Amino acid sequence: MFFDTHTHVNFSAFKSDANEVIKRALACDTWLINVGTQQDTSTAAVELASKYSEGVYAAIGLHPVHTWQQMLDEEESHFKSRQEEFNESEYTALLYSKAVVAVGECGLDYFRLPEDNKEKAIKKQKAVFIAQIAFARKNNLALIVHCRDAYEDLLQILKAEYAGMPAVIHSFTDTWETAKKFLDEGFYIALNGILTFDKTGRLAEVAQKTPLDRLLTETDAPYLTPPPYRGKRNEPSYVRYVVEKIAQVRGISLEEAAEKTFENAKRLFKV
Ligand SMILES: [Zn+2]
Known about the structure:
With 271 residues, the protein is of the alpha/beta class. It has a single domain (2-269), classed as TIM Barrel. The protein has helices at 18-27, 39-49, 88-93, 118-138, 151-161, 176-184, 194-197, 202-209, 239-250, 254-269; strands at residues 2-7, 30-35, 56-60, 70-74, 77-81, 100-109, 142-148, 167-169, 188-191, 215-217. Strands 1-2-3-6-7-8-9-10 form an 8-stranded parallel sheet. Strands 4-5 form a two-stranded antiparallel sheet. Helix 9 crosses helix 10. It binds zinc ion.
């Protein structure tokens, strides 16, 4: 079994075929968590998950880039980020569904800050992140954390607000030294297609040295498509290419890598 712990079949890129994509994943023994980035994508994630009795789950939360309105360029598709507040009562209303297994994606993103208002935007991101940490704690849910160019600040906040609690640093892209700091706090590390095309060797080192019981796999679809589908839309069933790469760098079988990362996800998200 495989587990795509971070995917976005709830995004408009899958508007016409979301359920076909999900069924294709399930047919490939792949379970998945659709992750929200704001109010409407969180709602869509819950609605999709509610259609399946097993294997399809939802995370609800507010992505740091959506705490401030600006134009962004994500994998060559331009979009306008929305300025949303973390409205706890609206997110609480989504907890009617047992398919909600995590809060996220939330966190810090210093790569995409508004030029004219950096300090204020950082302050806002931190406040919104801390509010979601409290929400996860209160509802006994795991945390799916997004981080770009902000690992030091992120670690400080997690240590202060969420020590010893269940969290994963999703789409991890930093060095082994940084990964180790999060692992030392008991958090999980999730790797995706970037591992398969990272030429620096940095993520291979993370894939190799992270204890096998703390490693998760994901696609972050529709983005970050691994070979042999590079350039096309990514989807949950392609998570096997990430697992293959992990098996290869660790010198273990695909079966073992799949089984262990699947168990890790089940343990973290209590499914
Ligand atoms: Zn994502």
